[in-house]
Amino acid sequence: MFTSSPHDSVLASYGWDGSWEQLASTSDASGVPGRVARVDRGRVDVLTADGRVHASSRGHCAVGDWVLVADGAVAAVLPRRTTLARAATSGRSEAQVLAANVDTVLVTVPAESAARTGRVERLVALAWESGATPVLVVTKIDRTDDLAGVLSELALSAPGVEVVGVSAVTGEGVEDVAAAARGTTVLVGPSGAGKSTLANALLGADVLAVGAVRAVDGKGRHTTVHRELLPLPGGGVLVDTPGLRAVGIRDAAEGIERAFADVVDLADGCRFSDCAHEHEPGCAVRAAVHDDELPERRFEAYRKLRREDEWAAARTDARLASERRARWKQVTKDQRARYRARGR
Q1: What pLDDT was estimated at residue 216?
Q2: Taking CA atoms, which of 22, 36, 52, 90 is between 20 and 30 Å from 330?
């Protein structure tokens, strides 16, 4: 059983509640409960009621996980409520967990890059798929003369998602972002989007390093090199993440449907329930594109993410099939070896 603490109010500030306590009490492992604040090569920093502790970890811990720590090691990882993950950048079929037990995902995009909506759509899909609530945060609004147009354009790319504009330089919109940052909040977006600057504004102190953006291409350096969980002064916790150069989709069918709710709603009007939106008669989606009711770019983005997700699923199935074949091959080999041994 887990070891309780007289300072459970400290744990509550990190997101601990009765349901986590119930999971801990029914765990086969024993130890002190805490939340993973940082992961680094088999070592984790864990926030406990008695302070920050360092522990070894043999499992797959992620920032945001609730764990039980005993004798300087992670004894158990409690089941996750939500998981924000992307396809691994290595090209392998497993997912890379960006953060665990997340409530809100702040998808950041700088105002000057607002026209590049493809990455936004991907991140919003991943956020919905995780079980968290996405919020689209347009940063550096002090650098645009058409804020209303920027916000309107991005709102069309993320139907049903709250869109907030913010300038960490002037302070405009910081309170709005803070109000949207409910529970455990993770910041995601490309390098140079101003995530660390925004994080410092939300934290009320220069906790995280920030870097300049290259003038030649508008790209920033990875000033954040580790995912790290930090308590927010107004309650809740914030996870800052390194800039994402690649945002792979994997097992995100439901998230894609929610991110492209406008396309899905149109598809309900198709003549055939299994319409592929290609050349079928009575396709409401194609008709909407033809009549300029649905931007063709958005429709193609939807199809692209669907194909990518289906391809990733097929790769996973192929990998599992390959592993099964390898196991049976080894079983057969072992059986033949035993038969030969008996015949001697």
Answers
A1: 39
A2: 90
